[in-house]
C-alpha cells in the first residue's frame, strides 16, 4: 500500500511537470494544482489521481473534499480532453473574453492568459476605450468587443478603432492539448514494474535457505 501511494504521488508530480511542455508559456500554478490524488488505506485499497475542477485542494495526506459550488478549474477538462470552452462558472460573464493581436502586452501574463482585473481596468477608461459594436459594422460576434480609440480621425468623422478584447462568442471548440491519461498510465506501468522488481530482489536477498 505504501508503494502504491508513493507511485501515485510521484505520478501526480509527473503530470505537474510535464504539462509545462504542452502549454504555450507553461501552466499556471493553479492549473498544476488541479492534478491531485486520493490515497489508499486499509479500508479503501484504491488510490486515484484525478483532475480537480472545482478549485479545491486535497490535503497533504491525500484526503479530498469536493467543491460545493462552481467549477473554477473547469478549463482543465478542456486542456485534457478538448471539447467546448465556456465562460467561467461564476455567473458574472456569459460570453468568452479573448485577447486579440492588439491586446496590450501588459494585460497578458507570461503564460499567455489575461491578467486578473486587466479587462476591467481598460473598460473603465471610457475616454480611450469603447465597448460594443463599431458604428457602421454588422452586429455579429466577430465585431463585439472592447476597442481602443487610436486618435486618428477618419474622413467620415470619428476615431479609428482597434479591438483589444473580443467578447462576441459564448463558446468555442478546442482540441486536446495535454495527453494526461496517456502520460499517467505510462508512468504508472513503468514505476510498478520497477518497484515490483526491486521488492522481488530484496525478497531474494533476505530469503532463508530451505
Can you give a write-up of this model?
Helix content is 30%, strand content 18%. The chain starts with a helix and ends with a helix. The protein has helices spanning 2-18, 29-32, 75-81, 118-124, 180-206; strands at 35-38, 48-51, 83-85, 98-99, 129-132, 145-153, 159-166, 172-174. The mean pLDDT is 81. It contains 5 helices and 8 strands. The protein folds into 2 domains: 1-92 and 171-210, no CATH class; 95-169, no CATH class. The protein is an alpha+beta fold and 210 residues long. α1 (2-18) runs antiparallel to α5 (180-206).
Q: What is this structure, in a nutshell?
A:
The protein is of the alpha+beta class.
Helices, strands, pairings?
Blueprint: H1 2-18, H2 29-32, E1 35-38, E2 48-51, H3 75-81, E3 83-85, E4 98-99, H4 118-124, E5 129-132, E6 145-153, E7 159-166, E8 172-174, H5 180-206
Antiparallel strand pairs: 1-2, 3-8, 4-7, 5-6, 6-7
Report the strand count.
Answer: 8
How many independent structural domains?
A: 2
Strand order in the sheet with the most strands: 4-7-6-5
Please write the string of helix (H) and strand (E) elements: HHEEHEEHEEEEH
Oligomer: single chain
- State the separation between the terminal residues, measured CA to CA: 29 Å
Residue ranges: pLDDT <50 for 5 or more in a row?
none
Average pLDDT figure: 81
- Return Rg in Å: 24 Å
Task: Tell me the number of helical segments per DSSP (H or I, 4 or more residues long).
Answer: 5
What is the helix fraction of residues, given as a range?
25-40%
Q: What fraction strand?
A: 15-25%
Structural class by SSE content: alpha+beta
Assign an overall shape: elongated
How can the largest sheet be summarized? 4 strands, antiparallel
